[in-house]
């Protein structure tokens, strides 16, 4: 038996199809109890016109000769056997795919003779048997119940036989190829919570990579499935993983918008800037005055900073001999300001800060930029770590994302492994005959 195709919703099987009936006109007497006749005799005797109601493409094996057998006993009992490959329709319900169970029917009966002429019955309890050790690649054969029934057609009532092959799918392939890689990709996306908020390209690149990888796995897993109108269990799992990867990107957007302020340099408004000429700076009394002026304007634009830096690096300047360590201390300060980042803490309530951020209040943002830039020296003296601190949103996401993902996975597997519909006789294929 096999293969079983979900894409075309069909299955195929090789079988020995045996039919028994009695025709007293063919009874005889003699020393021989049964006669094995040539298949050419089939053209000269009556035989049932059996066909498969849900068959699609069935054929008789003809190598090396037509695989048929005809045997007649003394009482007129006839055995007609043939080897067939049957391809039949199998309506599938894929809501729980790949933890699903399917029931593939095979329905047979007479094409032209109604129940007044022919009655089909299974011969005994062993009418349907399988070769010992038969296995399927993706399914386990649970049971194969069969029954006799009568269906109504336009021409009247017809006697038919039905056997259902109840199958349960193996989930090992999908666990290895889809579920475990998707879980690992989602866990990999959480690494961005431990990456510093200033590494914008690193965190965004990691998030985009995980989303694209999930897209590739999702498209590959759908190649062998039909385009059904409902979502399968695998679709829900992939959607859940997509949600977490996209939520990781949105979380960084929230961190970047609500907690990152400026670049860490000292902000100076244009209206607050006073143009200092180089002569005024050189005319300072002491090296301490020069250092104070440089520290006050260290975060200015590159054009304006260039008015100060050449003087500090000029070996002919009188201030270099007066204080040799001044150039090093100022350079170190200016280098450190480039690395300052931005989570700050205020006495303003957090809900007000949130509203200011949503509103886009410029005054509030300028205030945060100034405090983020100036808090370096103050926080070091007070023991408070404002600059280069970890965002509260990141700290919350480190706990919230893994815990919620584990809870959803537990519910997912509990629902789809514990809940299974019982196999019932399906009459849908019979209704297509009307």
TrEMBL record:
- One Pfam family it belongs to: Neur_chan_memb
Question: Which residues are in the Neurotransmitter-gated ion-channel ligand-binding domain?
Answer: 3-170
One cellular component term (GO) for this entry is:
chloride channel complex
Family of this protein: Belongs to the ligand-gated ion channel (TC 1.A.9) family.
Name of this protein: Gamma-aminobutyric acid receptor alpha-like
Q: Where in the cell is it found?
A: Postsynaptic cell membrane
Judging by the UniProt lineage, the source's domain of life is: Eukaryota
Q: Which residues form the Neurotransmitter-gated ion-channel transmembrane domain?
A: 178-260
Q: Which residues cross the membrane?
A: 173-195, 236-258, 399-419
Is the keyword ATP-binding in the record? Answer: no
Q: Which UniProt keywords apply?
A: Cell membrane, Chloride, Chloride channel, Disulfide bond, Glycoprotein, Ion channel, Ion transport, Ligand-gated ion channel, Membrane, Postsynaptic cell membrane, Receptor, Signal, Synapse, Transmembrane, Transmembrane helix, Transport
How does the record say this protein sits in the membrane? Multi-pass membrane protein
UniProt keyword Oxidoreductase present? no
GO-annotated molecular function: chloride channel activity; extracellular ligand-gated monoatomic ion channel activity; ligand-gated monoatomic anion channel activity
């Amino acid at each position: 038996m096999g293969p079983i195709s979900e894409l075309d919703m069909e299955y195929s099987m090789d079988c020995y199809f045996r039919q028994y009936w009695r025709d007293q006109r063919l009874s005889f007497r003699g020393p021989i109890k049964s006669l094995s006749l040539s298949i050419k005799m089939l053209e000269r005797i009556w035989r049932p016109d059996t066909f498969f109601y849900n068959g699609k493409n069935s054929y008789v094996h003809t190598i090396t000769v037509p695989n048929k057998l005809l045997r007649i006993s003394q009482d007129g009992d006839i055995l007609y056997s043939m080897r067939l490959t049957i391809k039949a329709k199998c309506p599938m319900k894929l809501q729980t795919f790949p933890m699903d169970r399917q029931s593939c029917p095979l329905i047979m009966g007479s094409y032209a003779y109604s129940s007044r002429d022919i009655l089909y019955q299974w011969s005994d309890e062993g009418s349907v048997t399988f070769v010992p050790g038969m296995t399927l690649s993706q399914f386990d054969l649970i049971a194969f119940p069969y029954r006799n029934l009568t269906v109504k057609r336009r021409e009247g009532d017809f006697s038919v036989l039905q056997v259902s092959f109840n199958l349960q799918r193996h989930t090992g392939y999908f666990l290895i190829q889809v579920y475990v890689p998707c879980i690992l990709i989602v866990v990999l996306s959480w690494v961005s919570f431990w990456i510093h908020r200033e590494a914008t390209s690193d965190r965004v690149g990691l998030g985009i990579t995980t989303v694209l990888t999930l897209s590739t796995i999702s498209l590959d897993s759908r190649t062998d499935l039909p385009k059904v109108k409902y979502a399968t269990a695998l679709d829900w799992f992939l959607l859940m993983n997509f949600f977490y990867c996209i939520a990781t990107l949105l979380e960084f957007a929230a961190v970047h918008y609500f907690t990152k302020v400026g670049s860490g340099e000292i902000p100076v408004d244009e209206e607050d800037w006073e143009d200092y000429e180089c002569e005024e700076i050189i005319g300072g009394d002491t090296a301490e005055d020069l250092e104070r002026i440089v520290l006050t304007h260290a975060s200015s634009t590159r054009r304006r900073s260039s008015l100060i830096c050449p003087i500090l690096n000029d070996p002919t300047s009188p201030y270099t001999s007066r204080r040799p360590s001044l150039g090093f201390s100022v350079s170190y300060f200016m280098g450190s300001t480039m690395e300052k980042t931005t989570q700050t803490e205020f006495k303003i309530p957090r809900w007000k800060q949130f509203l200011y951020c949503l509103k886009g209040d410029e005054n509030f943002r300028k205030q945060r930029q100034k405090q983020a830039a100036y808090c370096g020296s103050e926080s070091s003296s007070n023991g408070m770590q404002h600059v280069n601190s970890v965002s509260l949103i990141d700290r919350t996401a480190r706990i919230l994302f893994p815990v919620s993902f584990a809870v959803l996975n537990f519910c997912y597997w509990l629902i789809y492994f514990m809940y299974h519909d019982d196999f019932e006789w399906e009459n849908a294929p019979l209704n297509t005959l009307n």
